[in-house]
Amino acid sequence: MSLTIKEPAMSETEMVAEAERALAEIGKVRQAVGKVIFGQEQVVEQTLVAILAGGHGLLVGVPGLAKTKLVETLGIVLGLDGRRIQFTPDLMPSDILGSEVMEQDETGRRSFRFLKGPIFAQLLMADEINRASPRTQSALLQSMQEYHVTVAGARHDLPSPFHVLATQNPLEQEGTYPLPEAQLDRFLMQIDIDYPELAAERRILIETTGVNDQKAENVLDAARLKTVQALIRRMPVPESVVDAILKLVRSARPGSGDAETDRHVSWGPGPRASQALTLCARARALYDGRLAPSIDDVRDLAEPVLQHRMALTFAARAEGMTVRDVIARLAKAV
Fold it and tell me: With a threshold of 0.85, does the pTM exceed it?
């Protein structure tokens, strides 16, 4: 079985040739990012997989772990028009989307003109997104799903490609708001960033405190990135992988016949999670130099794709369980 978008068929030879070219370019991207971001290979991989799959990523970690620097670096390396919004408690939806202003011409005739907000970018960095109120956070809902915004009843299309990479501080910190469930579901992956290992932190210490600092270099452009994204959507998905994705996602929902899930999970992932797993598995396969995803890809991507799409029951939280524990058990059964 092959899950592909409806485009003209590509022969196996053409597919292999395009994949080899894309793989070489992805290797250059990884090398360029690695010159600026030390260590954190898994974080870089997951973030690139989210972009290659055509989706959005939520980077979660305490301050000082280079979340913002990673997003800025990817914008330069991938050749995307990047904008940054610093989310604050007083940020308004119009500060993101833009607003209409009244103008008057020489004849005295008045009319409204739309001034675009910073959301009109190919790579939007929503920095510390959970410091803004849920009302302001929800301003991103339509753009992240439909790739356009509506202001005063008029539709305004966003640039293509359009990606949101949001950074988030842990909810335990003061002055933060939880993201609405509908917005969490629009993020293809939640990428957790831990403290760097000793060797990486030593390199950070030495190479970032001197006179010369490494600068990111451009490798791709937006048009080429869209071509690679289209190639990923053409990649065949084996029937066994489709079955594994469906089994994993459905087993994470209460009422699916899994007694432990019924006891521990309050609400589970919807069909968007299955779509995300399929796209991310394809992108990860190409990232690793393979032409088709495997069940191992599904297992490895289960946590970043599912963890922000589930919530535990009060009883599970009282027992000290985490969403990661539940996902690890379900992924092991696949």
Answer: yes
